[in-house]
TrEMBL record:
Mg(2+) binds at T314. This is Guanine nucleotide binding protein, alpha subunit. The keyword Cytoplasm does not apply. GTP binds at N433, K434, C435, D436. Keywords: GTP-binding, Magnesium, Metal-binding, Nucleotide-binding, Transducer. SUPFAM superfamilies: P-loop containing nucleoside triphosphate hydrolases (SSF52540), Transducin (alpha subunit), insertion domain (SSF47895). GO terms for cellular component: cytoplasm; heterotrimeric G-protein complex. SMART domains: G_alpha. Gene3D superfamilies: GI Alpha 1, domain 2-like, P-loop containing nucleotide triphosphate hydrolases.
Length: 565
């Protein structure tokens, strides 16, 4: 609107105001039409499909939990209480493992050798050390804590097969996309799992979702707790939400053992036993023993953080739907597929892609990424696939096959995915996860070259190690991809949300530093930032950007240039 001219007569003023009103009306109509068009576009939009693949224990479900936690708060709040029994089970297993090793050392039993791994060689060496001195108190604790074996069995029985240890599962092939290895496209070699299986942790948890009286539904009325505080919930009976009588009883039983658990865990001789046997419980999935005060109680309810750390393996392929509720893409549907990563369950992946993913919409997101160094631009995502591997267990064996080194298995799996013809149009994003554990391992003085001879004399620190592994994965992708694709890799630590906030490794070619620019939509930058924030809570450091930056940039499509890392 312009300022009125000087000496404007009343008639001129009337004409000017009428013209301005008319212009505003037209402008409003255009805005309204654009809004309606955007709305229609949105409705027509096809879902974005994100597939989480990777080894067992690589953190796929933990990533999914981050999505849920950030984006599907209501569903998250409903499920949170159902993780209580899983956390009880994780906790009891921690304690029983300690007691098992204490008992083994007291009785001078050797460590059970499932293979000839470095750990077990070290433990053989441990038996050459002088015997530890155990007191009557150790004997009393050992006997008393035997009572927890029954609790573990009870929880495992109630939670079903997803809760069982993997030692006994059928061993399969690393390569899920080799039809020969995967059986036929009907997935005959899927072994214990079926395609689109619903018998995984979702089902296990479903058993424990609360029932609201009179509804017969598996959903409960839960209000959202804050992100990391205690869950807040309503319960018509006035009791704690989601507390089934037997779960309360288990909490109470654990409470009666609480002091003894703490005594045994904090005992220096017991710690020496674990150290000699190379057992690092703290690094194992589902470690909760340090939280005995909170968890071993009738009143225990899981926090968000507990749920992200809880461990229950995924069986089969499970689908989750999320609808965007912010940014310009409100209403955009994302479908995230979480799969079981043990070797035997990988056979189920191939027929699943064959039937489903190859028919999925091809052009999901068009983004132009460019590297700050060379300004090479290319279209990034046709179909998003995220691939998880863990870096920390370079010296460990697969839980399902103790003869196979985890890193070797990672290489085979990655090669198989890169070479898969069904995924030729999919953009692969590699997450090298559990960097926190890798760093801890290196700080403890574990040398990579002892397990990975090709590492040679490189420096045994995190930046050098991650650079080395990234280059290796990049080379595998180059050698095995039927068509050359850009290689995207991210170092992550999906359960430690602030891990990388202080860590800024120097840019590794083709990997960490990404500039997002030039958006030609269906998905805008706020969606991308959201995706990155959720997927890479530890590397896409939101604190570095003013809050709401994504939304601001979303209003300026084409101009957005954001440093993600
Ligand atoms: N310290 C650490 N623990 C992690 C990280 N990511 C996942 N975990 C933990 O590792 C365990 C295994 O993670 P999951 O997400 O269940 O693994 P998964 O890939 O879904 O495994 P499957 O379902 O068997 O295929 C869980 O207890 C997680 O909390 C990480 O970056 N750092
Ligand atoms: Mg899982």
């Amino acid at each position: 609107m312009t300022a009125p001219p000087r000496n404007e007569t009343p008639e001129e003023r009337q004409i000017r105001e009428a013209a301005e009103a008319e212009a505003k009306k037209i402008s409003d109509e255009i805005d309204e039409r654009l809004r309606r068009e955007r709305e229609n576009d949105r409705k027509k939009k096809r879902p974005v499909k994100l597939l989480l693949l990777g080894q067992s224990e690589s953190g796929k479900t933990a990533t999914l939990k981050n999505f849920q936690l950030t984006y599907a708060r209501r569903e998250w709040a409903e499920e949170r209480a159902a993780w209580r029994s899983v956390i009880f089970l994780n906790f009891v297993r921690n304690v029983n493992l300690v007691v098992e090793h204490l008992n083994g050392e007291m009785s001078d039993y050797p460590v059970v050798n499932h293979d000839d791994s470095q750990e077990d060689l070290s433990s053989r060496h441990a038996r050459t050390l002088p015997r530890l001195k155990f007191t009557d108190e150790h004997r009393r604790l050992r006997t008393s804590l035997q009572g927890l074996i029954g609790v573990q069995l009870d929880l495992e029985r109630r939670l079903g097969s997803a809760s069982l240890d993997m030692r006994s599962t059928t061993v399969g092939n690393a390569a899920p996309f080799d039809p020969e290895a995967a059986g036929t496209s009907t997935g005959k070699r899927a072994g214990e799992f079926s395609i689109h299986s619903s018998n995984g942790w979702k089902t296990a948890l479903g058993k424990f979702k609360m029932r609201t009286p009179g509804q017969g539904s598996s959903r409960a009325e839960l209000t959202d707790g804050d992100s990391n505080g205690s869950p807040v919930a309503t319960s018509p009976s006035g009791g704690l939400p989601g507390s089934r009588e037997w779960e309360d009883d288990i909490g109470e039983t654990l409470g009666t053992f609480r002091d003894e658990i703490k005594l045994v865990w904090e005992d220096s001789t017991v710690q020496e036993v674990l150290a000699r046997r190379k057992i690092r419980l703290e690094d194992m999935p589902g470690f909760f023993i340090n939280d005995s005060d909170r968890i071993a109680s009738r009143n225990y309810q899981p926090t968000d953080d507990d749920v992200v750390r809880a461990r229950l393996r995924t069986l089969g392929v499970q689908e989750y739907k999320f609808i965007f509720d912010h940014g310009r893409t409100v209403g955009q549907e994302w479908r995230i597929y979480d799969v079981g990563g043990t070797r035997s369950s990988r056979a189920a992946w191939y027929p699943y892609f064959d039937d489903g993913m190859s028919h999925a919409p091809k052009l999901m997101i068009t983004l132009t990424f460019s590297r700050p160094t060379d300004q090479v631009s290319f279209v990034l995502l046709l179909l998003i696939h995220s691939f998880h591997f863990t870096l920390s267990p370079f010296d460990e064996k697969l839980a399902e096959d103790r003869k196979v080194n985890r890193l070797e298995d990672s290489y085979l799996l990655w090669a198989s995915v890169c070479s898969c013809k069904l995924l030729v149009k999919a953009q692969l994003i590699l997450f090298l996860n559990k960097c926190d554990l890798l760093q801890a391992k290196l700080q403890r003085g574990i040398r990579i070259r002892d397990s990975v001879t090709s590492y040679g004399t490189r420096i045994n620190d995190l930046p050098t190690a991650t650079k080395y592994f990234q280059q290796h994965f990049k080379e595998i992708a180059r050698r095995n991809s039927p068509v050359q694709r850009p290689f995207y890799v991210h170092l992550t630590s999906v359960i430690v949300r602030t891990y990388f906030s202080s860590l800024r490794p120097s840019p590794v070619p083709g990997s960490c530093l990404l500039l997002v620019s030039s958006f030609s939509c269906p998905i805008d930058i706020s969606s991308v930032l959201w995706f990155c924030r959720v997927c890479f809570p530890c590397i896409c450091v939101p604190q570095r950007h003013p809050p709401g930056l994504g939304l601001v940039l979303a209003r300026v499509p084409g101009l957005a240039r954001v440093l993600l890392l």
